[in-house]
Design brief:
With 390 residues, this protein is an alpha+beta fold. The protein contains 11 helices and 20 strands. The chain has 3 domains: 98 residues; 182 residues, Rossmann fold (3-Layer(aba) Sandwich); 80 residues, no CATH class. The strands form 2 sheets. Strands 1, 2, 3, 4, 5, 6, 7, 16, 17, 18, 19 and 20 form a 12-stranded antiparallel beta sheet that branches. The structure holds S-adenosylmethionine. S-adenosylmethionine binds next to strand 10, helix 6 and helix 9.
């Protein structure tokens, strides 16, 4: 995560510009006065820099929720702020001279909006969830040039490693997405995927709501898979296998194949480790046998005029409001000029989305971007509008 340790934070005038970076406004955390967010725009990318003020020094870094696709834009914004405010930088992991070739020049890295806004392809599509080192994904893409692969991962170093390999191997049939695969599944059209690989997912024995395999995930998998398409789960965890089997078999008209210690064409890093330890490996393959209706997402993310005062809004901090099928949690409240900004998580319990919301006297808007148009977000938005309406 790019960051600067600085001696003392100095505020600049907002809005202003430096080295091609626009500094739009600053937001002060109402409950923790050592935290601020700086809204920036770099090459059309809107995101926040996060400031944490400590006793002897401060930390300026990228904000996790709004980080742009290109890490280079974060580097640019951090360096431009430091110059503009004349900050004394004590330590930094941001290169002064750079262009991150692998993230900038590789066309393969797509953001979720790319898939959310009417993504289609004429090719057969295969998806790998949590590709880790990418050994399996890269092998599949290199050996099946006529098939389009989408690799989904949330671990940035793994993504960078795979992007590097895509450039080296000149692969043009592999797209990479840095996003929660469970949300991705809700957005893509029905009946277009040939295979979904879920190899060695984190078992999350103590936090089962974080598991990739769930009833909703299987529902979405059945929707996006073509007739004859397969979801392939491979795990070394007997517990996860048993849990998944039960979750799969609860579906009506389900065809499952179970295998133990089956060899597949390429073994992943994890698989090698478990094999060395002589652990069993379980496969559950689900075959989809039904055509699904097209994905229909009705509604939008507009708000009615708010009724709550700024003081009432700030008081929402830390509160959780539940509704049938999901929740909204008000994580943080910030003061900005003429408005209150809220950081919220919302949606369904096992795959919430985190967002910022700016509430002015007569308007409410998500910032810097709208939630993704998914069933659970549309439902949560309706409920949020009621809460903000008072
Ligand atoms: C145990 S590793 C297995 C990696 C790889 N499949 C292999 O077999 O070597 C699980 C991977 O899934 C990723 N992951 C976990 N939850 C995810 C999610 N919801 N969406 C996308 N990736 C996820 C993790 O970052 C991690 O790299």
């Amino acid at each position: 995560m790019p960051h600067l340790h600085i001696e003392k934070f100095k505020e600049i005038t907002f809005p202003s510009e430096h080295d091609g970076v626009s500094f739009n406004f600053i937001a002060d955390n109402i409950n923790h006065n050592n935290e601020k967010l700086i809204a920036v725009t770099v090459e059309g990318d809107d995101f926040f820099l996060l400031l944490k003020e400590e006793e002897n020094r401060s930390l300026l870094k990228s904000d996790k929720l709004t980080r742009p696709a290109s890490i280079y834009n974060v580097h640019k914004a951090l360096l431009a702020y430091a110059k503009k405010a004349n900050l004394n930088v004590i330590a930094s992991n941001v290169p002064e001279q750079e262009k991150n070739v692998h993230l900038e020049d590789v066309n393969a890295l797509k953001n979720i909006e790319y898939f959310a806004s009417s993504f289609t392809t004429d090719k057969e599509l295969r998806v790998e969830v949590g590709f880790g080192s990418g050994r399996h994904l890269l092998h599949q893409a290199a050996n099946n040039p006529e098939i389009l692969f989408i690799g989904i991962e949330i671990h940035r170093p793994s993504i960078e490693q795979v992007l590097k390999q895509i450039t080296i191997q000149k692969l043009d049939n592999l797209l990479v997405l840095d996003y929660d695969a469970r949300l991705f599944m809700e957005l893509i059209p029905s009946n277009i995927v040939g295979k979904i690989y879920v190899h060695f997912p984190v078992p999350w024995d103590k936090k089962p709501h974080r598991r990739v395999i769930s009833t909703t995930f299987i529902e979405e998998a059945r929707r996006v898979l073509k007739v004859g398409g397969q979801l392939e789960l491979r795990t070394d965890s007997e517990n996860y296998y048993a849990y998944s089997y039960e979750t799969f078999i609860a579906f009506n008209k389900t065809t499952l194949y179970i295998n133990k210690n089956k060899d597949i064409v390429i073994s992943s890093k994890y698989e090698d480790r478990w094999k060395k330890m002589e652990k069993n490996i379980y496969d559950v393959t689900m075959i989809n046998e039904e055509d699904s209706p097209i994905l229909s997402l009705e509604g939008d993310f507009t708000f009615s005029k708010p009724n709550l005062s700024k003081t009432d809004l700030a008081k929402l901090h830390s509160q959780t409001k539940k509704f049938d099928g999901g929740f909204i949690h008000f994580e943080r409240a910030y003061k900005i000029k003429d408005a209150v900004m809220l950081r919220i998580s919302m949606g369904s319990f096992d795959r919430p989305e985190h967002l910022y919301l700016i509430v002015k006297d007569d308007s409410v808007e998500y910032f810097p971007s709208l939630p993704l148009k998914s069933k659970s977000n549309l439902l949560a938005h309706k409920f949020l509008d009621k809460v903000i309406h008072g």
